[in-house]
């Protein structure tokens, strides 16, 4: 970006900030709602379009040529043509813009979602985002998204409605869509968002990071009529300014640095105003502070007025689904003609939608083929069928699924060494089928193998080899006896578990869009199966395809000799089997904290109420997930970043070096204000490098995730915060390797609410290296 542009943005930001500060002092805030309301002051004028007008796009440093092309095209369009680009309509995709034939611009195809191209046929079903996060491997995260992007492209999609960034981040373990996302930690989530965006767009498909912002619960996300006295408004996520910046905005900033074409605004309100009409969030934070140059696309039905065009560029599904969600923006020509909306705003909205289209070369070099599915009917006629799977993709998916499996406990149950008799009990039935994730039809969640959760993030998985299939093949080849009970029958379980060397108990738990989980319990039938197995056998191995569930009564049970969290694997549910038998090692780590009981997490993080104007106060502030457990000294069952292996590792020799390196990772630059900005430096410049040595001290090959945490100086700070991770692959027994973590200026900064900028706090910084958030044997102190 040119210096003048940087200065212009900085000045604009400074003015905006000064105005925001004045306004904060001037506005009296209603403090009656909770005793805590005042903490939300600094972020409380979300719908003031005078203070937060939509910034005109510039294309940013990466999209200059594409920006000029888009601008030229838009200059040739009529108002009706421009309005069509902003408005989605019915078509073969879940969202479809109106093209402009005479200028060679096609209808753009928008399609879900984060585990693959949603329509049913000829696609891969990828491990869920949370599973990919559990690999803690940047490259696998990137490759997953790239391979998925290729399938989107080959199916004719211009704009993928993926990946999920920090919405949901996962502040509650009950969140219905946590599995679609990644980590409830801003740093790790930022890495995931950045790599996923890059992967997708390296396949020439536009990414849409979602859902912006504060989208942490499904309950009451949409307006409904819940009582006789009127309709219920969407839940309002009330987030203070510091938390907004440090926890929720930071991952989106990384997605923008990765060059994300578009952003989807969320269903919830943010501090009282609908996210998709929220001037402060979309025009201030997103397009101003983190400098988003593409479009904001509404979530389906997230728009509640045509005037949301002042912040949100595309209305989806618009007239699609028979206008079910309100055909907002259909009246755009009239609103411009009567002076309600300026034509400049419409021009800029079109430019923001079209710039990434040109940047990705979708007009010339990388034109997606004709759309070969119908989102309204997944299994429609053969002419829509086209298998776009690539030979290497199945292998990649298998690898991700394998590395997403986290070994949580092992007192000798694993690996399964040449069993003579193996019993299998639980939710991994032949009933496993792809429709489980679709609409809730076609399977019994209690006993079926689950390969993912439900909702728009579902993808079809006709290629599932169930773990039971894989075990049968092994039993045949290695000639051991395999018996199974896939539903509760005490007698059968007693019998088969009683005589087996080992008993595998498979558990699942369902999570889906539109509904949060009610509690952490597993289904009743599974509970009974587990109980019966533990009663009958002294060598029970629990394997789960689930979010966090309550297995507390078994965690230390002597008859439970191993526990594995295998996550939602997509089509590769069998991948974990090779690790159970020890052909492969475990290397996954928990991408969230596994608490002992629901009460260990902050209270009331899923708000359920009949109130017509429901409010969620993010009172835990920045203390989300492990930061909450650490602050309140709550012992989790398994901590964030934890996972065992068949070998052991040690870290030694921590060193900190002052090591200035200019940021070379930003595809687009953000415009975040920070102390010490000199016109040419970046908040993402590297200022220190921390190194350590990782040694495999066991007797077999394995991979380890080295983790860097930092304790920042100051009061009421998190005990420690993740600031780096690196998967050290395939260390032989006895082998040592150096790991190195680059620490940026932002990594050592906090958001100063008064000064409205990132500031490095005064004092000593303590760096910790180890292999989980609570096993950090190496410590070293450094000042800034
Ligand atoms: C609603 C979901 O929240 C969003 O993630 C999805 O992309 C749209 N529906 C379109 O299916």
Automatic annotation (TrEMBL):
It comes from the Eukaryota. It comes from Wallemia hederae. This is Probable beta-glucosidase G. Beta-glucosidases are one of a number of cellulolytic enzymes involved in the degradation of cellulosic biomass. Catalyzes the last step releasing glucose from the inhibitory cellobiose. Gene3D superfamilies: Glycoside hydrolase family 3 C-terminal domain, Glycoside hydrolase, family 3, N-terminal domain, Immunoglobulins. Residues 30-56 are annotated as: Disordered. One of its GO terms (cellular component) is extracellular region. Residues 704-773 form the Fibronectin type III-like domain. It catalyses: Hydrolysis of terminal, non-reducing beta-D-glucosyl residues with release of beta-D-glucose. Residues 1-18 form the signal peptide. The keyword Signal applies. GO terms for molecular function: beta-glucosidase activity.
């Amino acid at each position: 970006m040119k210096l003048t542009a940087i200065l212009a943005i900085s000045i604009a930001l400074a003015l905006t900030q000064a105005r925001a500060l004045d306004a904060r002092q001037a506005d009296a805030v209603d403090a009656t709602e909770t005793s805590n309301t005042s903490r939300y002051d600094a972020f409380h004028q979300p719908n003031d379009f005078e203070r937060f007008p939509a910034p005109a796009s510039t294309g940013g440093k990466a999209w200059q040529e594409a920006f000029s092309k888009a601008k030229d095209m838009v200059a040739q369009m009529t108002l009706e043509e421009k309005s069509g680009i902003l408005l989605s309509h019915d078509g073969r995709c879940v969202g479809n813009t109106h093209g402009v034939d005479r200028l060679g611009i096609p209808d753009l195809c928008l399609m879900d979602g984060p585990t693959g191209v949603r329509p049913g046929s000829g696609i891969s079903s990828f491990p869920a985002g949370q599973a990919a996060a559990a690999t803690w491997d940047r490259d696998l995260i990137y490759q997953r998204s790239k391979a998925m992007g290729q399938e989107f492209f080959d199916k004719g999609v211009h704009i993928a409605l993926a990946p999920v960034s920090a919405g949901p981040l996962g502040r509650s373990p009950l969140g219905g869509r946590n599995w679609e996302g990644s980590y409830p930690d801003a740093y790790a989530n930022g890495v995931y968002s950045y790599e996923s965006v890059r992967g997708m767009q390296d396949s020439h498909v536009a990414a849409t990071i979602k859902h912006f912002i504060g989208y942490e619960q499904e309950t009451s996300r949409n307006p409904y009529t819940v009582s006789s006295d009127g309709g219920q408004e969407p839940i309002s996520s009330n987030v203070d300014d510091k938390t907004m910046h440090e926890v929720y905005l930071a991952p989106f900033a990384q997605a923008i640095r990765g060059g994300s074409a578009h952003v989807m605004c969320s269903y919830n309100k943010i501090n009282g105003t609908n996210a998709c009409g929220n001037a402060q969030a979309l025009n201030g934070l997103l397009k101003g502070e983190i400098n988003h140059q593409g479009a904001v696309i509404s979530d389906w039905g997230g728009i509640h007025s045509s005037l949301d065009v002042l912040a949100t560029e595309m209305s989806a599904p618009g007239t699609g689904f028979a206008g079910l969600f309100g055909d907002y923006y259909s009246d755009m020509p009239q609103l411009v003609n009567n002076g309600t909306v300026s034509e400049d705003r419409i021009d800029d909205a079109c430019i923001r939608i079209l710039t990434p289209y040109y940047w990705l070369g979708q007009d010339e070099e990388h034109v997606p083929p004709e759309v070969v599915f119908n989102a309204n009917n997944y299994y429609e006629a053969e002419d829509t069928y086209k298998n776009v799977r690539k030979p290497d993709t199945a292998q990649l998916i298998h690898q991700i699924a394998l590395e997403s499996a986290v070994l949580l406990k092992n007192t000798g149950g694993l690996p399964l060494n040449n069993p003579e008799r193996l019993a299998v009990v639980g939710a991994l039935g032949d009933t496993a089928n792809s429709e489980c994730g679709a609409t809730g039809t076609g399977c019994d969640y209690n006993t079926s193998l689950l390969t993912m959760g439900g909702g728009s993030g579902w993808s079809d998985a006709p290629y599932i080899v169930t773990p039971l299939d894989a075990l049968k093949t092994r039993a045949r080849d290695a000639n051991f006896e395999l018996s199974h009970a896939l539903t509760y029958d005490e007698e059968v379980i007693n019998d088969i578990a009683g005589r087996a060397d080992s008993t595998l108990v498979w558990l699942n738990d369902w999570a889906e869009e539109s509904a949060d989980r009610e509690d952490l319990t597993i289904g009743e039938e599974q509970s009974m199966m587990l109980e019966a197995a533990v009663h009958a056998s002294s060598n029970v191995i629990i394997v789960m395809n689930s979010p966090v569930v309550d297995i507390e009564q078994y965690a230390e049970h002597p008859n439970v000799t191993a526990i594995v969290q295998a996550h939602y694997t997509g089509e590769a549910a069998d991948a974990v089997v090779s690790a159970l038998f020890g052909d492969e090692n475990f290397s996954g780590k928990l991408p969230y904290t596994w608490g002992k009981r629901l009460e260990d997490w902050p209270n009331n993080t899923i708000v359920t109420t009949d109130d017509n104007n429901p409010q969620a106060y993010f009172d835990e502030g920045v203390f989300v997930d492990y930061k909450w457990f650490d602050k309140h000294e709550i012992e989790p069952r398994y901590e964030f970043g934890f996972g065992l292996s068949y070998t052991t590792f040690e870290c030694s020799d921590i060193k900190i070096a002052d090591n200035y390196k200019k940021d070379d990772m930003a595809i687009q630059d953000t415009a975040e204000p920070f102390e010490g900005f000199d016109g040419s430096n970046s908040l993402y410049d590297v200022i220190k490098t921390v190194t350590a040595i990782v040694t495999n001290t066991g007797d077999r090959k394995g991979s380890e995730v080295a983790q860097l945490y930092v304790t920042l100086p100051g009061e009421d700070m998190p005990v420690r915060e993740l600031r780096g991770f690196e998967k050290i692959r395939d260390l032989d027994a006895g082998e040592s390797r150096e790991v190195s973590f680059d620490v940026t200026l932002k990594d050592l900064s906090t958001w100063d609410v008064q000064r409205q900028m990132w500031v490095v706090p005064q004092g000593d910084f303590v760096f910790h290296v180890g292999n989980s958030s609570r096993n950090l044997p190496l410590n070293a102190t450094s000042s800034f």
